[in-house]
TrEMBL record:
Keywords: Disulfide bond, Ion transport, Membrane, Transmembrane, Transmembrane helix, Transport. This is Solute carrier organic anion transporter family member. The keyword Transmembrane helix applies. GO terms for molecular function: bile acid transmembrane transporter activity; sodium-independent organic anion transmembrane transporter activity. Belongs to the organo anion transporter (TC 2.A.60) family. Signal peptide: none annotated. It comes from Elachura formosa (spotted wren-babbler). The chain crosses the membrane at residues 48-76, 96-120, 174-193, 213-234, 246-265.
Length: 280
């Protein structure tokens, strides 16, 4: 009777809904933020501003790993049990850290950091010499002016399917290639970032806290620094689309070539009776 399956917890539903709401709130920042910068900044300064935006975005996961390292040192029921009654340590395989504490701290910080966005102006003064028609605001004004000249019969709302079919976004070879490239890059990076802490725990005998700390301090800061330096290089040499593509291809090729060194890093597998060795 003690081996019968007990009713499972539905707490995962709350985590799922929380991550869904977080994704909805975080998504507009990058596309709309880049568009905001591109509209109201000088063309030669946009790469640096966008690089700063992505660099700050990379610092978030870095602090998240450091926060996870701190929370992993605290027992999961902290605040509800007497710390003196806990007989195990974080090095014990039965130890469960306060994983839920990071959600509370991160959620409160996200809420506070979102408040200043409410005070941003809808439109900024455009720099001298900027082409008004190039900005999304100028395009919107021109579109409205054209619509006012059209007859009411020609301004009927169109269905989303017709609009998407007319734009043929996915039919653009440049956009589709860039989309596939981004999917491959992020899939590899997320997989690497997700399983590397667990790999360090299993292969090198590190605790969860120390693994998260090492990942946060060694893996993410170089990425943020690289993004910032890339923006400075693009500004200094005033790269166009072709030069930026060649630059991106060269750096990506070097990065993948250096990543091959990971195949030579590791320890021998643990001896497990019945799996790696016989029972005898």
């Amino acid at each position: 009777a003690g081996c019968e399956k007990e009713p499972s917890s539905y707490m995962w539903v709350y985590i799922l809904l929380g991550n869904m709401l977080r994704g909805i709130g975080e998504t507009p920042v990058t596309p709309l933020g880049i568009s905001y910068l591109d509209d109201f900044a000088k063309e030669e300064n946009v790469p640096v501003y966008v690089a700063c935006l992505h660099t700050i975005a990379m610092m978030g996961p870095m602090f998240g790993f450091l926060l996870g390292s701190l929370c992993a040192k605290l027992y999961v029921d902290i605040g509800f049990v007497d710390p003196g009654s806990i007989t195990i340590t974080p090095q014990d395989s039965r130890w469960v850290g306060a994983w839920w504490l990071g959600f509370l701290i991160g959620g409160a910080t996200s809420f506070l950091s979102a408040i200043p966005f409410c005070f941003l102006p809808r439109s900024l003064e455009k720099p001298e010499g900027a082409n008004k028609d190039k900005t999304s605001h100028g395009l919107l004004e021109n579109t409205c002016a054209v619509r006012n000249k059209l007859s009411p019969e020609k301004t009927k709302p169109r269905k989303w399917s017709v609009m998407l079919k007319g734009k043929k976004v996915l039919g653009n070879r440049m956009y589709f290639t860039f989309l596939c490239c981004s999917l491959l890059q992020f899939s590899g990076f997320i997989g690497f970032l997700t399983y590397k802490p667990k790999y360090m725990e299993q292969q090198y005998g590190q605790s969860t806290s120390k693994s998260n700390f090492l990942i946060g301090m060694t893996s993410l800061p170089p990425v943020g620094l690289g993004i910032f330096l890339g923006g400075l290089i693009m500004k200094k040499y005033k790269m166009g689309i072709i030069a930026a593509t060649k630059f991106s291809f060269t750096m990506s090729f070097l990065a993948y070539a250096i990543s091959l060194l990971h195949f030579f890093v590791g320890c021998e597998n643990y001896v497990v009776a019945g799996m790696t060795v016989s029972y005898e």
